[in-house]
């Protein structure tokens, strides 16, 4: 494999095995399967078997890893995949790009970006005023799992080829560093190892908050997941207006696994998602972010 994204995808799957994120229990149940669902267990196990064939890599047997640990590891690997791919698409989308894993423990929040800096002021007001806090709530403060943001340009960089700006004009342009602005949020990536019950809908809530509370350009809003069940993928992927698209960590393997181990309904649901361009493979994500 000479293609950059193909190599990165292969490495991403290899790291899932090596970090004990994608594992099997002694009973042969994959770590991304719902133990209470026969269909989920069958499809997830088939995906693991296919990836083992592709990777020529043994899968670890681990009986107990917390969901929180798996989620954090999946976030980290998603961030690393984007770091290995997106910054190298300068011919498609030039820029000074930074890709970070945020989460709730990181000091960097959406208010640290140009489109959302007003939220810091709003948060300060609600902290001081309980009535205002009760009226507005605090769901406007979002901490995406992974962010891609664009650093600002010095005037010397903007004017490198020819004079573009001077001191008299472009005084409020976000991308100009001399205007004293903040970095521009390019993409918000929600990394969900699985989609259990209502937890998957957190991604939709975050998306709606990003859409509703922004000033200026809307960033890409995407979800990356290893969920094996097509009906659970559909609960988040179907519909438009909030999330750009859901990206599966191994869509090609999922399609094969569902055909071999899933029900007719599962096959039909997956076809609907793929043909409707609501579910793509993780390899599509870097190129989609270049738009």
From TrEMBL:
CDD domains the record matches? NgoMIV-like
| SUPFAM superfamilies recorded | Restriction endonuclease-like (SSF52980)
Q: Enumerate the Gene Ontology biological process terms.
A: DNA restriction-modification system
Keywords annotated in UniProt: Endonuclease, Hydrolase, Nuclease
- Short name of one Pfam family for this protein? NgoMIV_restric
Q: Which InterPro entries match?
A: NgoMIV (IPR015105), NgoMIV_sf (IPR037083), Restrct_endonuc-II-like (IPR011335)
Q: Name one GO molecular function term.
A: type II site-specific deoxyribonuclease activity
Q: Does the keyword Mitochondrion apply?
A: no
Q: Which residues form a coiled coil?
A: none
> Any idea what this protein is called?
Type II restriction endonuclease
């Amino acid at each position: 494999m000479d293609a950059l994204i193909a190599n990165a995808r292969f490495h991403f799957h290899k790291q899932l095995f090596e970090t004990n994120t994608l594992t099997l229990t002694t009973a042969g149940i994959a770590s991304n399967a719902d133990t209470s669902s026969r269909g989920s267990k069958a499809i997830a196990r088939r995906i693991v078997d296919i990836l083992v064939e592709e990777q020529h890599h043994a899968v670890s047997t681990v009986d107990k890893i917390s969901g929180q640990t798996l989620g954090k590891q999946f976030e980290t690997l998603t961030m690393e995949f984007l770091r290995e791919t997106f910054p190298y698409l300068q011919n498609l989308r030039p820029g000074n790009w930074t890709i970070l894993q945020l989460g709730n423990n990181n000091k960097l929040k959406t208010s640290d970006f140009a489109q959302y800096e007003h939220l810091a002021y709003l948060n300060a007001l609600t902290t001081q005023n309980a009535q205002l806090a009760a009226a507005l709530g605090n769901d406007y403060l979002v901490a995406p799992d992974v962010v891609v943001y664009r650093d600002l340009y010095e005037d010397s960089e903007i004017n490198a080829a020819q004079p573009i700006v001077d001191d008299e004009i472009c005084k409020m342009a976000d991308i100009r560093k001399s205007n004293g602005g903040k970095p521009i949020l390019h993409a918000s990536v929600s990394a969900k190892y699985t989609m259990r019950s209502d937890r998957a809908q957190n991604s939709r809530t975050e998306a709606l908050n990003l859409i509703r509370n922004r000033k200026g350009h809307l960033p890409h809003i995407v979800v990356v997941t290893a969920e094996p069940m097509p009906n659970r993928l559909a609960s988040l992927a179907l519909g438009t207006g909030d999330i750009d698209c859901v990206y599966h960590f191994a869509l090609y393997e999922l399609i094969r696994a569902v055909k071999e181990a899933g029900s007719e309904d599962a096959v039909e649901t997956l076809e609907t998602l793929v043909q409707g361009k609501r579910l793509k493979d993780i390899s599509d994500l870097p190129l989609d972010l270049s738009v």
